[in-house]
Task: structure prediction
Amino acid sequence: MSQYSLETYEKYKTIKIRPLPSSQMDHVSDHGLFEYVAFSWKELEPVRGEYRLEGITEALHTVPNPILVLTPDLPLWVQDYADECFAALIRKIGSYLNSDRCLAGVAISTLADSKEEWNAYIESFETHTLLVDLQNDRLIQHLRESSRGFGLLVKCSEENWLECCEALARNHVQKVWKRYPVIIHVTDDVCGPHTRNEAYRWHACLSNVDMGLGYHLALRRLTYPESVSSRGSLPLRFWFVNTGTSRIYRKFRLWVQLKQGKVSYELPLLAATDSWLTGDLVHNEIIPLQDMPPGEYTLSLGLFFEDRSYIPLNIRNPQQDGYYEAGTIQVETTHEDPLMNIWDTYDPEGYYPLEDPKLPEA
Result:
């Protein structure tokens, strides 16, 4: 072992887990696809003030990653102030769907491209992602002036892909993907090479055709101590990688499970997952342990959304209820907690001691 190897600076005995990548991810094959759920004004409000909205919720739960589209087909009763009446419908639907979390986004469609209609979307769909047509410069500017975040709906083909690139630059929305989704609607029968390349470059997360978009998370390495103390501290060093085209936009959290027989302890971590983008994702944390019986435990990890559904990882490790088995750890009963402040004197990644260089000897 070289004097410059990472293990030279370890202050405690560690176990390093390097999972092998799985050969395929069939169980998440549809997470990069979306479907429009479109409803016309005249079917939702055939008579003024009488709404038929029950079918919206049912339709949203039958397709993957639904995007809601309200088409402004005028009902027979509309005579004057059509845009204001349509804005009233938008507000009604936004209020009706306020607690529905299955929506991937709401495409802003209007009758007259009026501010009244735009503001209806902004004010009534507060908890949902608004999707803006990339070519609608006025709407993008209005949303910015209203301090409202938005995603992009890019209608792209082999004929207009260059125009889409110009629109991204013109509206300065190249970095929108870091906070809000970029959706690609391929208007060709078959996705061409330019469309595919630009979708990857724009970090698109969803498309109407299968282009392999979305996130693909894997665990590259997990480092943890061979043994810990009951009611002590557990230092963990995670190295994930997202090899997909986009980040994960839903809120999720990193959890660790310690299991011995039928007894298990689930421990939430404070990883800043809302800032995880693509590429390497590193998190180091020392978590406190409960009063646990001594013995050997199985250590597992998982990434869970708020509804407790889990994020599949592209690794071969055994998985149960969203937790991927990493290895075993020994819990001991001691009177001290030697790992509580273990990272105070050296870098948690083990590259070098945290001390000032000494003066050379005379």
About this structure: Helices lie at 41-44, 54-60, 82-96, 115-124, 137-145, 161-171, 193-201. Residues 35-207 form a domain with the TIM Barrel fold (CATH 3.20.20). Residues 256 and 267 are 5 Å apart (CA to CA). The chain has two domains: 6-22+216-344, 35-207.
